[in-house]
Every structure is written in structure tokens, then in C-alpha cells.
Design goal:
alpha+beta; tRNA-splicing ligase RtcB; six-stranded mixed β-sheet; 11 helices; globular
Length: 407
Amino acid sequence: METQSQYELLHAEGSATPIKGWVRGVPLEDQAHRQLQNIAALPFVGPWVAVMPDVHLGKGATVGSVVPTRGAIIPAAVGVDIGCGMAAVRTTLSAKDLPDNLAQLRSSIERGVPVGNGRGGDHHRMPASVETRLGASGLYERLEAIKAKHRRIRTDKLDKQLGTLGGGNHFIEICLDETDAVWVMLHSGSRGTGNLIGTYFIELAREQLAHRVLGFHLPDKDLAFFMEGEPLFDDYVEAVSWAQDYARHNREAMMARVLDDMRHRLPKFQLDKLAVNCHHNYVQRETHGGESLLVTRKGAVSAREGELGIIPGSMGTRSYIVRGKGNPESFHSCSHGAGRVMSRTAARQSITLSQHREATAHVECRKDAGVIDESPAAYKSIDAVMAAQTDLVEVVHTLRQVLCVKG
């Protein structure tokens, strides 16, 4: 039986391009709504824009949006954390196999996987297994080809950051599902190299505006674009594809390191066949309604019929393994998480340490001021977000975290 679509039509002022939003029961800030209207006003955007329930203001494009384009691509819509996404795997361990005190396991994972931004989050020396994986991937050669054409892309971070977490909202978690099976789940992207690539091409797109004769108003310079047929369009597609592949390899390398550490500290276990590795900041060519489109998901996950995805909550709330329903109205997409309800600055100003500690009392995690902006109160209700998209996904497993590592 077909599920009735739950979206609301959010009309874009001055534009014939509709905005379809899965926002019932969740807040949609005025600034984010205006940003969506700016995007929908571009003549190459369409046939509509899809808005996920975790929507919030972003740079250039709105986080929690699916932006299809015809013959053009917007680097800032993809952003600088290119290929950021999630990975999760179920193990044969159960809750009774975990130690009563998880502090040592958290410390061990933090030592085994470099965390945080800056030099402290880099490798001093790559493990042999990671180095072998990187050498066989072809990523080195592909990056060198990109750098040969764009010499302003200077990076020595590739071999220092594969298999590292980063900072911000990136995390590693040990979770339990509804049967008390142990899962490992993590969130990260293309790290410093992807950031450099994203920043560079966003700047190039802005520079190109000075040489364009536009027959329309561009309301935000961060919506600068490349047109199909231009050399920079092809160069960006090549670079963004590289960063997306690197992000996937990064999550695989991190997962291997976490599981290796667990094998040294926990009873013997095997990996279940159920594993997921999905992007939620990326662009790719897809066919929808018989039309070839460039689909940018900025904070959204592919949810084709039968496709598995991950929707995390926050440091103190549930996360979900979901199966897509292939809803064409959302371009076969769903939310990428709970979505922020307040900025990082606002969170640091309004959430107290005691509130953060209370909200994460059931989780072995950092309880210090450095993660206040990631506290559960900074995010929307994951229950409301999931309720707003029952026509996009079905829940396969509900996960509750017992350990969380933050950068």
C-alpha cells in the first residue's frame, strides 16, 4: 500500500520552483526559509527543492536540503566537508560482553584513532594496514592529477588524516540495539584535504561571477556556480568525486581501527552482515522522472527503495538504521540526523555544564565545556524528525549509545 506523502509546499517568493518540505512538527527558522527561497529562485534549480525535517541554516545552501540542478553545479551547496557521512556495523557482541566501566575503552579508542582538528588530530605515523589500503586505492594518483591542474591546491594531509575523526559534530559511538546487540557507528568525512578542495572551488566559482553575464539575480555570492561544458565544471566534478571516495575510505579505515581496538579488549566477536556506509554531503548525477539531474544532498541521505541508511540523533539520544521507501517527491532522500536547533555560539551561551552532564548521564563521553555546542539540547527532537518522514523511511533498528568519542 502506497504511503501518503507528508510534505508541505513551502512556496518560494518570486520563483516558479516549488519547495517541498517534510517539516511537520519540527521548527523551520526564518533565515533557513529565506535561504531556501534564494536557492529555488535560480533558473537551473528544479524541478523542485526537497527539504528534510532536520533543516537549518547553512553557508550558501541550507543544511537538510536536496537541490537538483540542470546543467550547473553549486560548490557551496556541497560545502567543504565533502563526502561527510556515516558508517555502522553490527557485531555478535551483546551488552553483557561490555565492561561495567567503559571509560578505559573510550580512552583506548581515543588513543587508537586520532581525534580533533589541527595537528593533534593527525597521524604521526600511519598504521601499516591503513597505508596498504591507501596505496591500493588509487587516491594518491587521482589527487596528484587534480593538483597538477590546480596548483593552488596544496596539501600534505592525505596520508596524515586517513583513518582520523576530526572535530565538530564528528563522532565514534558504541551502541546497543533493541535486542542489546552491540553496534559500532561513526561519523566523519574527507577531513582537511576535502576542506581545501571545497574551499578552493567555492572561491573559483565566486571569481567566475565577475566574468559572467547573468540574466537573473544571484541573491548570494555563495550560490556561485559552474556551468556544464566549462572546464571548471569537469574539474570540480573530478575533485568532488575524489573527495567523496576519500571520505568513504576514511570511514572504512576508522572502523577497522576501532574494531581492532575492541578485539584487544573485549571477548571474541564476528561482524554481522548488516553494515552501512553512506554519504550525506555530496553530489552525483541521477535520473528522476526520466530526467538526468545533478542532485546535491547537503545534510541528506539517499533513501531509494530498500536502501539502508543511518539517521543519528545526538550525544544523548537515539539513532536509527533505516530502510528507504524510494519516495520520488524527496528525490529518494531522507534526513541525515536530528539537525541543529541552535547555533554553536548560542549553545555555548545557553547550555550549562550541569545540563549537559544530566543529558548524557547514561553515556560514557566527554562532560567538559569543549563539547557544550554538541550537547543534546543544541539539536532538534529526533523523535519529531523521525515522525515527519515516515513516508521516506522505515526504521529497521533503534540504537542507543553507551559510549561516544568526540573530536
